[in-house]
Amino acid sequence: RKDLKGRDLLTLHDFTVPQINFLLEEASRIKALQKAGIPHPYLQGKTLAMIFQKSSTRTRVSFEVAMFQLGGHALFLSPRDIQMGRGESVADTAKVLSRMVDGIMIRTYAQSEVEELAEHATVPVINGLTDLTHPCQILADLLTIKEHKGTLKGLKLAYVGDGNNIVHSLLYGCAKVGMHISVATPEGYEPKAEVVKLAQQDAQETGAQIAILTDPVQAVTDADVVVTDVWASMGQEAEQREREKAFAAYQVNRELCSQAKSDFIFLHCLPAHRGEEVTAEIIDGPHSVVWDEAENRLHAQKAVLATLL
Ligand code: CP
Ligand code: NVA
Question: pTM of the entire structure?
Answer without folding.
Answer: 0.98
